[in-house]
C-alpha cells in the first residue's frame, strides 16, 4: 500500500469550533475566579502578617470555610471567621472591638477571596483593611503561609 493516508476526524468543523470555544470560555472563567480584584488598600506578606498579628498591630482574620480550616489548620495568631456568614460584618465588627479604623488583615487560601472581601469591607466603612495576597496555600504573590513554614493551630484550638 503506497501513498498518503488521510486521517479524518468524526467531529465536524462546527463541533470542533464549538468545543474549542467552550474550552476557552472555561479557561477565562477559571482565570477570573483565580485572579484577585485590584485592591487599593495595603497588603502584607504572610511573614509580616504573622509578626504583626502576634504583636497586636493587626487583627488577622482567616476568612476561609470551616472545612478549609480543618484541612490545613489556622495560621497562629489568626481569628477564623467564615466570610459566608450572614452576620459576617457584625461579627468582624465585634472582633475589632467596634473600631472600624483598626488594622484588619484578611487571609484566605490564595488571595482571591481576601482581595474581593477587602474591597467590600472598605465600602462598608472599614478604613484599614489589609490583604494577605499569598494566602495560606500560595499565589502569584508568594509561597503562602504553609510553604513559608509559619505555625498553624488546629481549628478547634483557634477562637471563632
From TrEMBL:
<dbReference type="Pfam" id="PF00581">
    <property type="entry name" value="Rhodanese"/>
</dbReference>
<dbReference type="InterPro" id="IPR036873">
    <property type="entry name" value="Rhodanese-like_dom_sf"/>
</dbReference>
<dbReference type="InterPro" id="IPR001763">
    <property type="entry name" value="Rhodanese-like_dom"/>
</dbReference>
<feature type="domain" description="Rhodanese">
    <location>
        <begin position="54"/>
        <end position="154"/>
    </location>
</feature>
<protein>
    <recommendedName>
        <fullName>Rhodanese domain-containing protein</fullName>
    </recommendedName>
</protein>
Amino acid at each position: 500500500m503506497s501513498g498518503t493516508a488521510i486521517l479524518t476526524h468524526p467531529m465536524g468543523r462546527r463541533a470542533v469550533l464549538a468545543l474549542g470555544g467552550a474550552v476557552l470560555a472555561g479557561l477565562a472563567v477559571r482565570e477570573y475566579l483565580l485572579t484577585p480584584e485590584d485592591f487599593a488598600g495595603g497588603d502584607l506578606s504572610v511573614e509580616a502578617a504573622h509578626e504583626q498579628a502576634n504583636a497586636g498591630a493587626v487583627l488577622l482574620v482567616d476568612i476561609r470555610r470551616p472545612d478549609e480550616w480543618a484541612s490545613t489548620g489556622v495560621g497562629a495568631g489568626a481569628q477564623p471567621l467564615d466570610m459566608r456568614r450572614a452576620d459576617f460584618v457584625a461579627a468582624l465588627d465585634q472582633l475589632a472591638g467596634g473600631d472600624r479604623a483598626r488594622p484588619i488583615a484578611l487571609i484566605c487560601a490564595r488571595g482571591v477571596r481576601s482581595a474581593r472581601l477587602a474591597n467590600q469591607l472598605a465600602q462598608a466603612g472599614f478604613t484599614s483593611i489589609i490583604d494577605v495576597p499569598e494566602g495560606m496555600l500560595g499565589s502569584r504573590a508568594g509561597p503562602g503561609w504553609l510553604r513559608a513554614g509559619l505555625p498553624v493551630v488546629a481549628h478547634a484550638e483557634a477562637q471563632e
